[in-house]
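Sequence in, structure out.
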Amino acid sequence: MTTDAKREALAVLAEVSELAPDVRLGQLFADQGLLGEAHLGRGLGDIEDDELVAVLYRHRRELETRLEGEEQSAVPSGAATSVSGSSTHTAEGE
């Protein structure tokens, strides 16, 4: 792996780690191996460096998409939150 590719892979791995703070480092490596097997048909030790970088980017994109979905579903559209914290539905025009 070239120095630039290593830097890129480590930078993306750091971003993935930040998106999944509860996941241990060993789990992150295991995830990359599983994703390599699922998408490339080869395990972590057998994929090429550029393929590893692509797997890391794909994993990051999947985590970002999942987090965006969680943020959007946190408050249902058309609902308001009352002072007590329970949701209240409002009619249009109110």
